[in-house]
Amino acid sequence: MNTIAVAIDGPSGAGKSTIARAAAKSLGFVYVDTGAMYRTIGLAVSRQGIAIGEPEKVLPMLTDSLRIELSYDAEGVQHVLLCGEDVSPLIRTPEMSMYASFVSAIPEVRAFLLEAQRSMARTHNVIMDGRDIGTVILPDARVKIFLTASAQARAQRRLIELREKGEDVTFDEVLSDMEQRDRQDAERAAAPLRQAEDAVLLDTSELTLEQSIDAVLALIRTAGEEKK
To answer: Which pTM value belongs to this model?
Structure first.
């Protein structure tokens, strides 16, 4: 099967998931939110009472009994399942952002999820977003985009998102968490956040959501035409 893979990487809060999901829906591709997978493992870890900074306690959890699955409802909305439980609303909190950063820095966790992610790309046309999709997970992806925005712009977007969910947070708190996450992702030993050499840089600081989606779609379609 000759499938098409699109890799979208970038820092936390850049809008990767929202933009990738919308682009996938427009193109009829499967959207794969790898960040949600790490958040879900983070949730499982936190439920075991394991603190951030205790990677040795995470390793025994990486067995077949830890089932991370993605499902899609009739409207194409992604749901993340942890051992059959839909945990989609539970993984989108600042605490789970930090846990995701923690577990994603553990090489054994990345290896645990790697084959599942690559298998999706072999069997479907996919748009996959994360922090090392174009560099590690799908190095041969037909399209690679590094999606970014200023820390201030990303923090403002995340603040709106959290407040809409009823979270009582301030801009300074969100910005501080964002900057800490950036440092952790860039400095980790396992697959650090970086732009692939053949990825197109797209800065959405001054773009609306609709403009960002259109820009990503244009890059995908242009790449498709060039490689025909």
So the answer is: 0.77
